[in-house]
Write a structure and sequence with these properties.
The structure holds three protein chains of three kinds. By secondary structure, chain A is of the alpha+beta class. Chain A contains 18 helices and 17 strands. Chain A is globular, with a radius of gyration of 23 Å. Chain B is mainly α. The mean pLDDT of chain B is 81. Classes of the chains: A alpha+beta, B mainly alpha, C alpha+beta. The interface between A and B is medium-sized, with 31 and 28 residues. Bound molecules: iron/sulfur cluster (2 copies). One iron/sulfur cluster binds next to α2 of chain C. The site of one iron/sulfur cluster (SF4) has 15 residues of chain C, from α3.
Chain lengths: 542, 373, 172
């Protein structure tokens, strides 16, 4: 890391380097792109993954935090910070040309903070309509409902994107058409059986072939991050289950970890065991649903029902442990809310045996079916470079040969104590993603097997203060959720509420890669690829 | 004669009795008129009833494949479920779509249902139980059943909906391709049976079904016919025109109420029609299982009415079709066309030649073992 | 020649995979069905004790509950589902005392996060697994948790006093 510091200082001598929770570098807005580029192209340790892109309203200043990691070693992290004091017309430079994943994130920042990014090829608001008044995540946002009245009129969708480009050192505002004049555009979504939620893909077709996809999201955006700014940390916890509701427990684990790290709370051993086991159960639950939905997207309804049937057993175990099935509210700051019940071990062990058997059945039933193979092999190819650039993590990222399992790179809970394989395939097609999920179920079973008999006695929750205040600072935590890396960022000003809270949602990255991998595929395959990427909409529309 | 003692349950007894009674009291014209109307009404009723039974059966069987119980709330074992559904569909509003082509929009479901009814009428349900017995029965059935596609295409075109349009286009490509295979497969058997008339064909299968008579060649034709027939009915894994997860409901996205009901009925009826043609052509139709020389056995078998035989065999084929439908994922359009043009059609063409050779060189089972069959 | 071989091997492996798939569904045809026959199975239905359906305030046989009307649950609830209304009474020895008047909870708003239960210093709240809560009117979802005429259970020991008094409501 010393070398990196040197490199930063030689590139941008006036950069301010601080050692906070992460190595943090503050630069002026015109130097950021240069610095990011240098870090990315640093041959010894290229910082080529953009993990977080966080819009910030720092009071005076509007800015962005970037968390970069090398794709080969996610445990190394650098935070870049920049900002502008121009609140009327804030402009920053885009890093979309370096990290594709920045594209949608920058659009999100524009919608929520009003920062526009120079050189981002499409500077429409993401999540919000173009005519929304005000920037909701700014601290001085006017919440008066009359400014943005609820409309029941349907609005035409405008397929024209404004943008600001830098041409020969001058800024030029221009507008581009997303689609051509004669494109045959169909709206897949917002209400569509295969978008797995309220997602809207404007798709231009040439016969059956997908030419271009334009993503509209935000139909169920709830502004959870903003809501959290008025809630105490224990209260915020209940939102995490409602992001990606299929990895509810893991998301919650992520936030708890972030707070625990910041306040230096020691989580009891027993709680760690329970957390890990529950996380893995949650992962299987999610992968089963993903498997089921993918088969259903491919038209195999029967397989869908089988997947749901097996998932039901996990949900029953959840219900018995924590009284919830989907929104399970298990983790709390310092440990877990509910201890395991008497027959927990017995139930889980029975499930392991049952599930192994069912995995074999899935294999015979679907994994080698000639029709299914034809619909998955070589479809929706995502190369490793693109995977990293789009920051596609989880089973999908690992299907393209990128080792991106946070459980291996930055072990948390008990993941450094158990033995498990990171499932990696290099094909990068739908089938690789499909198989990865099934193999990860097997790995999860393996992890649980090692833990289930050794749960130590003891407390399930550390003693915490009645009111949890985080010390001043910026705190990050990253966990491996079912769809990829889930991240939590908290900026605290020493209060019992966060000053800014940001969730990095894995699904956003998955969806942002859809236009790339669906291009020139058939319409049917677009649906199938969507199933293989397995995004969850509430995770995107936080 | 009211009762024919050897086959007491045959409906033919009833029909011929009716015919004689009518004729004894009326002129030829009136007799024919009354009989036509009666036949029409009975066919319509049968059409509806069979569709309802099929819908119920499919839902139940599907459920059992999927570890569920299926309908079990309306009536005992949910037996009245499809009746309730039918009533619901009749009561539903028929939604008028803005900027759709009204006339075609309304005409489309009618095409669909008429085509399947025309085919339905020509099927021999039992001995003497067919409305008409053409000497070109097979040709007729192939011809009219393909009219249904017009309904699908019109629906897609007139709905003013892009999903419907894509569904209809897919359907067009699919139907044209698979019609070819289905036709060839039937022709293979026509070569073997030497007739296109259903009654003669069935009579010819008294001791040996066409399926066995032409052994290899017949079997291949049978399988191809089942596959392409299945594809023609637009049912999974060939349900691309509907493709629920892709096109919401494909060509009938915009239909509601009774019009949707028409498509729904026609879909099930087409499934039945395909199965019954396969039964008639390959499995001896309504002919009971008979073994040459075993007169006692034959007598007992003949006691079971012919329509029971027919429906029994058809039911087996329908079950097969459901089994396939609920086991496989949907094909993609290019896979679908590949299957037809790269596999089914060439195999079919070779098969037809093979059948001609078999028949000409006397290698069919009846020729090889004349004593047995 | 190899392409011909590929053609046929493709055909046959394809058919084999399809038949294996059909074999699996055939097996499933005879397996036990998993559908729950609700409401017929109401008597045998086991709902886990911990299942969170309805917030209750357990009352004992004397119609007494444990709530001190401290309002901590109300402060901790993330979305203002709970409204605690205390009232002041005069005890026999002439002192003013705060007791519970109404404790209102809105099922329609609750996110079942369980915070109220775990933060209540006197363990006065509990989630029950009574899950049949459908009503025809939203108003009916608003419930009053303390029973009519109930009063606070007098303990030998004073219930643990809340450590920190919270002044502001977090949602304001
Ligand atoms: S926290 Fe407990 S004691 Fe306090 S008001 Fe709520 S229910 Fe009553
Ligand atoms: S469970 Fe949560 S949301 Fe519901 S009343 Fe209690 S604190 Fe409020």
């Amino acid at each position: 890391m010393e070398k990196i510091k040197e490199l930063i200082l030689t590139t941008v001598p006036e950069a301010v380097i601080e050692q906070k929770q992460k190595l943090t570098v503050t630069v002026t807005y015109d130097k950021l792109h240069l610095l990011a580029k240098t870090l990315k192209e640093n041959a010894a340790l290229p910082f080529d993954t953009l993990v977080f892109l966080i819009g910030m309203d720092r009071g005076e200043e509007l800015g962005v935090n970037y968390l970069l990691s090398p794709s080969s070693d996610l445990s190394k992290e650098i935070v870049l910070k920049t900002g502008t004091t121009d609140r009327e017309n804030p402009l920053l430079y885009s890093v979309t040309d370096l990290f594709e994943t920045a594209h949608y994130n920058e659009r999100e920042v524009f919608a929520l903070f009003g920062i526009r990014f120079i050189n981002n090829p499409d500077m429409r608001k993401f999540f919000l309509n173009g005519d929304w008044v005000g920037y909701p995540f700014r601290k001085d946002y006017d919440t008066n409902p009359e400014l943005n009245p609820l409309s029941i009129e349907s609005k035409d969708i405008i397929d024209i994107a404004p943008r600001i480009m830098e041409v020969d050192g001058k800024l030029v505002e221009e507008e581009v058409n997303i689609f051509g004049e004669d494109d045959y555009i169909i709206n897949i979504g917002p209400q569509h059986p295969a978008t797995h939620g309220v997602m809207h893909f404007r798709t231009s077709l040439d016969g059956e072939i997908v030419k271009k996809i334009d993503i509209h999201s935000g139909y169920i955006h709830r502004g959870i991050e903003k809501l959290s700014e008025a809630l105490t940390y224990p209260q915020i916890l209940h939102f995490t289950d409602r992001l990606d509701y299929l990895s509810a427990n893991i998301n919650r684990h992520g936030l708890c970890m972030c707070v625990e790290k910041a306040t230096e709370i020691e989580v009891p051993e027993r709680a760690q065991y329970i957390r890990t086991i529950m996380d893995e159960l949650n992962r299987m639950d999610s992968h089963l649903l993903a498997w089921a939905c993918q088969t259903n997207d491919l038209g195999a309804t029967t397989a869908f029902i089988y997947g749901m049937r097996e998932r039901e057993i996990i949900l029953d175990i959840f219900e018995k442990t924590c009284g919830g099935r989907l929104i399970i509210n298990q983790n709390v700051i310092g440990g877990v809310m509910f201890d395991i019940y008497a027959d927990f071990q017995k139930d889980v062990k029975a499930f392991i045996i049952y599930m192994r058997d069912k995995l074999k059945e899935y294999d015979r039933f679907f994994s080698h079916n000639v029709i299914a193979l034809g619909r998955m092999i070589g479809i929706g190819n995502l190369s490793k470079e693109d995977t990293i650039s789009y920051a596609v993590t989880g089973p999908a990222g690992r299907g393209s040969g990128w080792s991106c399992d946070i459980r291996k790179h930055i072990p948390y809970a008990l993941y450094d104590k158990v033995d498990f394989k990171e499932v990696i395939r290099t094909e990068g097609d739908s089938y690789a993603r499909y198989l990865n999920r099934l193999d990860e179920i097997e790995q999860s079973l393996h992890i649980i097997e090692q833990l289930i008999d050794n749960i130590p006695e003891g407390d399930i929750c550390a003693k915490t203060k009645a009111i949890i205040r985080l010390p001043e600072g910026e705190f990050y935590s990253r966990v491996e959720a079912c769809r990829g890396e889930f991240g939590v960022f908290i900026e605290s000003r020493g209060d019992k509420f966060p000053y800014r809270l940001k969730f990095r949602s894995p699904s956003m990255a998955l969806v942002s890669a859809m236009p790339l991998i669906c291009k020139n595929e058939k319409l049917s395959d677009f649906i199938g690829i969507g199933g293989s990427m397995d995004y969850v909409i509430p995770d995107i529309d936080r | 004669m009211i009762l024919n003692y050897s086959q007491p349950l045959e409906i033919t007894n009833l029909t011929s009795w009716l015919d004689t009674t009518l004729r004894s009291s009326m002129s030829e014209f009136w007799v024919l008129l009354i009989e036509f109307v009666l036949v029409g009404v009975v066919l319509l009723a049968a059409y509806a009833v069979i569709a309802l039974i099929l819908i119920y059966a499919e839902r139940k069987i599907t459920a059992f494949f999927q570890a569920r119980y299926g309908p079990n709330r309306v009536g005992k074992w949910g037996l009245l479920q499809s009746v309730a559904d039918m009533i619901k569909i009749l009561l539903k509003e028929i939604i008028k779509i803005n900027r759709s082509d009204r006339f075609l929009f309304f005409a489309a479901p009618v095409f669909m249902i008429v085509a399947s009814m025309l085919t339905f009428g020509a099927i021999p349900f039992g001995k003497g139980l067919n409305a008409i017995d053409f000497n070109i029965g097979v040709l007729y059935v192939t011809a009219v059943s393909s009219l249904g596609i017009i309904g699908v295409l019109l629906a897609g075109w007139s709905s003013n909906n892009k999903y419907s349009m894509i569904g209809a286009m897919r359907s067009g490509a699919q139907f044209v391709s698979y019609e070819l295979s289905a036709g060839f497969a039937l022709m293979t058997i026509v070569v073997l049976a030497g007739t296109m008339q259903f009654s003669t064909m069935i009579e010819g299968q008294r001791y040996c079904w066409n399926l066995f008579n032409g052994h290899i060649s017949s079997m291949i034709a049978f399988i191809i016919y089942l596959i392409s027939g299945h594809a023609e009915t637009n049912r999974g894994p060939f349900d691309l025109p509907e493709a629920e997860s892709e096109l919401t409901a494909g060509y009938h996205t915009e239909y509601s109420g009774l019009q949707f009901g028409f498509y729904y009925l026609a879909e099930y009826l087409n499934m039945f029609i395909i199965a019954s043609i396969a039964t008639t052509v390959f499995l001896g139709g309504y002919m009971p299982i008979q073994v040459h020389g075993w007169d006692a056995f034959n007598g007992i078998m003949a006691m079971i009415p012919t329509y029971v035989w027919f429906f029994g065999k058809t039911a087996v084929l329908i079950f097969l079709s459901l089994w396939v439908r609920w086991s496989f994922p949907r094909l993609r359009i290019d896979q679908l066309l590949n299957l037809e043009w790269k596999y089914l059609l060439p195999i079919n063409l070779v098969n037809i030649v093979l059948m001609v050779i078999l028949v000409l060189t006397g290698l069919t089972l009846t020729d090889l073992f004349p004593g047995l069959f | 020649m190899s392409s011909v071989l590929k053609y046929f091997s493709g055909l046959f492996t394809g058919i084999r995979s399809l038949l294996t798939g059909m074999g699996e569904t055939w097996k499933e045809l005879w397996t036990k069905k998993v559908t729950q026959q609700y409401p017929e199975n109401r008597d045998t239905l086991v709902i886990s004790d911990r299942f969170r359906c309805e917030l209750t305030m357990p009352h004992d046989e004397n119609n007494e509950h444990a709530c001190t009307a401290c309002g901590i649950c109300q402060i901790n609830c993330p979305n203002g589902t709970i409204v605690v209304t205390p009232k002041m009474i005069e005890t026999e020895d002439g002192k003013q005392k705060k007791i519970l008047d109404t404790h209102k909870w809105d099922l329609g708003m609750c996110t079942f996060c369980n915070l109220c239960v775990i933060t209540c210093p006197s363990n006065a709240l509990k989630f029950e697994n009574t899950f049949e809560n459908a009503v025809f009117n939203r108003e009916k979802l608003k419930q009053q948790l303390n029973h009519e005429g109930s009063k606070m259970r007098e303990k030998k020991k004073e219930p643990v006093a809340p450590k920190v008094e919270e002044k502001e409501t977090p949602n304001a």
